Amino acid sequence: MDLAAKWATDAGDNGVGSTEGDFHGFVAARSAALFRGAFVLTGSRDAAEDLVQETLERTCRKWRTISAKDAPDAYVRRIMVNLANDRWRRFRRTAQHPVDGEPAAPGDEYGRIDSRDQLVRALQQLPMRMRTVVVLRYFHDLSDAEIAADLKISQSTVRSQLARGIGQLRSQFPTLSAPSPQQLTEGTR
Fold first, then answer.
1. What is the pTM of this model?
2. Distance in angstroms (rounded) separating the CA atoms of residues 151 and 41
3. CA gap 80, 52 in Å, rounded
4. N or C end of the chain, less CB within 10 A?
5. Residue 43: which region, alpha, beta or left (left: phi > 0; alpha: psi -120 to 50)?
6. Distance of CA 26 to CAs 2, 30, 31, 67, 114, Å?
7. For residue 49, how many C-alpha atoms fall within 13 Å in the half-sphere facing its CB?
8. Measuring CA to CA, how many Å separate 92 from each of 84, 128, 179?
9. How far are the Cα atoms of 56, 80, 128, 186, 189 from residue 41, in angstroms, in the given order?
10. Cα(187)–Cα(87) distance, rounded to whole angstroms?
11. What angle do CA 170, 49, 88 make, to 5 degrees?
12. Residue 182 and residue 144: Cα distance in Å, rounded?
């Protein structure tokens, strides 16, 4: 029997290795989604990587407790949101990025990247709670109830923050939020 197999067998007896294996499996399965959420919350790749790393570090320290919970994803998302809020409070953004430009033409991959960059910059202009609600709804596909539970706010606050956030984003992208000619003609029957 090789050493790795023996360790895995011994770890199964006392549970230490299985807990560590569970954490590694969680990281492998959820790190990409955590990075996407962190990127939208922070606005930069480097800050997002740091945020995910710090989130996973705190998660690792408390993994036995977290893994015993019903929804470890929600617990880890809450850690990430709290860390992002702490960073935002410490390092308030002073540089304002202009958000302008034309929508990407169909098939224009570079234009789509520019639009995505403009969206991330526009999200950075939103207040932190509003940005967090928008990110949790549209990037993590959470319901009002799940967002309210994660952020410890009421569902009506989630809906109002979401409506205001979407309104501010639409005002920064008037050409994208205007109804298409097809939508205009469909309503006149």
1. 0.51
2. 14
3. 7
4. C
5. left
6. 26, 6, 8, 9, 32
7. 3
8. 11, 10, 35
9. 16, 9, 8, 37, 43
10. 46
11. 55
12. 31
Q: Tokens 């790190």 map to which residue?
A: 31
DSSP codes, 130-146 = HHHHHHHHHTS---HHH
Per-residue pLDDT for the chain (189 aa), expressed as one digit of tens each? 443 344 344 444 444 456 677 889 999 999 999 998 888 888 888 989 999 999 999 999 989 988 888 888 888 988 998 888 887 766 654 444 444 445 545 555 444 456 677 778 888 888 888 988 998 898 888 899 999 988 889 999 999 999 999 999 888 876 655 555 555 555 554
Q: How far apart are CA 98 and CA 121, in angstroms?
A: 8
Residue 98's SS3 state is coil
